[in-house]
Amino acid sequence: MKIWGALSAAFTGWMKILRGDASWQQHFAITPAGLATALVIFVFFALVSIAIAAIGINAPTLPGLAAGLVVQCLSILALLIGALVTRRAVPVEQPLLALLVPGLYGLVCYLVLGTVFSMFGGAVLLVLWLGLGYLFYRLARMAAQWSLGVSIAFAVLTMALLVGMPMTLYMLTGPVAAPAL
Description:
The chain has six helices and no strands. The chain has helices spanning 2-19, 32-54, 62-89, 97-117, 122-144, 148-173.
């Protein structure tokens, strides 16, 4: 039940972030334990997403499941890098967990909606990316209290990493053409 309660509280917290309500933090456990809970929830939904993607193909093998989980977890790395780079450029007193914990719940929402919307095609996924970028912008404004420009830069950087890292990994693991002589 704790996981359902965490998801419910995160939803309420995100609604308050989007409205600009200063009481949003009380809905997130901005602690290492809260981060661990958010990570477990993310991994659970990532595994569900991988299983749904495998429907109609085959049951994923253990290496395939692990590879899919690594690719899904790149979004966590994108959020972490975006937060660290932006905090290094524009230091704030708020703890990094204030960005990461709600950000992870935003990524869970993105993962769930992305799994559902991927059945409808690419144009809907573009709208989802724009929506996630807006969530990151609002998170930066509320959690880090960055200015408009810095919050937009954080959202753009995080989204570029989120979209670019899996593509880069795919290109790096693909076959390399032999040089022409």
